[in-house]
Automatic annotation (TrEMBL):
Native species: Deinococcus carri
Alphabetical UniProt keywords: 4Fe-4S, Iron, Iron-sulfur, Metal-binding, Oxidoreductase
Gene3D superfamilies xref list: FAD/NAD(P)-binding domain
SUPFAM superfamilies found in the cross-reference section: FAD/NAD(P)-binding domain
PANTHER family: COB--COM HETERODISULFIDE REDUCTASE IRON-SULFUR SUBUNIT A (PTHR43498:SF1), FERREDOXIN:COB-COM HETERODISULFIDE REDUCTASE SUBUNIT A (PTHR43498)
UniProt-recorded name of the protein: Fumarate reductase
Lineage of producing organism: Bacteria, Thermotogati, Deinococcota, Deinococci, Deinococcales
Amino acid sequence: MTLPYSTEPRTWDVIVAGGGTAGAIAGIAAARAGARVLVVEALGSLGGTGTNAWVTPLMRNVSAGQNLNRGLTDELKARLRARGDGATDAGGNDNWFNPEGLKVVLEQMLLEAGGEVLYHTQVVAPLVAEAQPTAHRAPPPAHLTALVLHNKGGLQAFHAGVFIDATGDADVVARAGSPFHAGDEDGVHQAMSLRFTLAGVETGRLTAFLGEHGQPQASPDFLHFWMVWGWNSSLEPLFREAVTAGVLEERDGDYFQGFSVPGRPGEISFNCPRIRADLNDGANPWHLSAAQTDGRAAIDRLTAFCRRYFPGCEAAYIGTVAPMVGVRETRRIVGEYTLTVEDILDCRRFPDSICRNHYPVDIHSVKGGARLLHERDGTAPYFAPDAYHEIPYRALVPVGLRNVLVPGRAASSTFEAQSAIRVQQNCHTMGEATGIAAAWAARDHGGEVRGVDVAALQAEMRRLGHVI
Ligand SMILES: Cc1cc2nc3c(=O)[nH]c(=O)nc-3n(C[C@H](O)[C@H](O)[C@H](O)COP(=O)(O)OP(=O)(O)OC[C@H]3O[C@@H](n4cnc5c(N)ncnc54)[C@H](O)[C@@H]3O)c2cc1C
């Protein structure tokens, strides 16, 4: 039987596994650096958690009044604003965006750069070349030759010189047999959330209500309101009343947060519901599936709550339930360097820095509440308003593999450190660094990512607008 598409074997310089927050940017950067690039994505659009899990806005990462993530992040924001899908508020925060617009912008940027994308395709496992031990030393890091993919065409092996594992879960690294960390000291992960939107909201009336109830808003176009049990939110009495009335369950108040979305008037994006505590492993297919069910039921309760208790929401309806469960943390590679919370608190600098961060340690714990290490909490150098720490290139290089890089939330870091560096803008910058490095490794070093001249990479990133 002949299949109506080409099954000719093809090879690329760089294959990016997962076209999400870091992976899409990595693909664009690698293509702009001259590589033949394929981005393989399980779903039908780029952007990952920032689009398909509907995580908006970008969290701020500012030090001394300056945004620490530049380069392609700046270009994304400019393109989003130009099409009405991005906005800057009166306080100068330019991180507001519409996830549906971001899907379009990322795809345009990848294709314009000459990159290719293969949607609806799952990365199954890498093919690993046999390492050749010598008489005198341990085997060198293993070399991946291909990724086995699954899609409507069946199982296929796609070859490349360098692979970027941007699956968020380090799927490629884990299946290559390389070590990884997962969860906290007990193996317990941060909470997952299934994000959703309510459309048909009269935002003027909602704004007035929030103002009268202790959460004044600068503008009805940039709403941000929240409630977490025990965090002194002015909306807590309302939640208590709703729990007593049987509209909400107690756990619906573990984390509740709403945001405006540019380009979508009358729509509010919610950073909730939080998924049941025992379902916390996003790399466990049963947890992931049950999270969808659990989240949908909670969205139904939260919708009823908003309609009943928030003026302006009486006729609101569910606009979107994110097609992807929001997963904060699963596997994290063991890299050539593992970033720690001490590195963060001490504002550690690294000679091979590729990114600066001042976003706080932010753990959505399933062991009770949430934890945010914030300026007001301490006197460590990190808490100064002009502080930042750096992320080294080595944190993106998995031990035991010679032609693989891992940007994004699976970068090598402890549980606490990951909770700080995982925000989207850092994932962009890590993605951009790995995209350029992968293109250079494929072109000049036979795929060896440790062969890349990191000083030249830093100079190139500065040329592209980064502050590193
Ligand atoms: C609920 C929630 C709220 C958050 N809030 C904020 C916030 O307000 N602002 C902020 O800046 N950050 C926030 N974050 C953090 C941030 O969004 C994520 O850490 C970041 O987007 C992760 O980026 P990534 O590239 O590592 O992974 P992802 O963006 O998740 O990308 C992984 C991609 O790989 C694909 N993929 C996975 N496995 C495979 C496979 N085997 N084969 C093929 N494709 C695969 C996925 O479909 C996805 O597209 C939040 C996270 C969550 C979960």
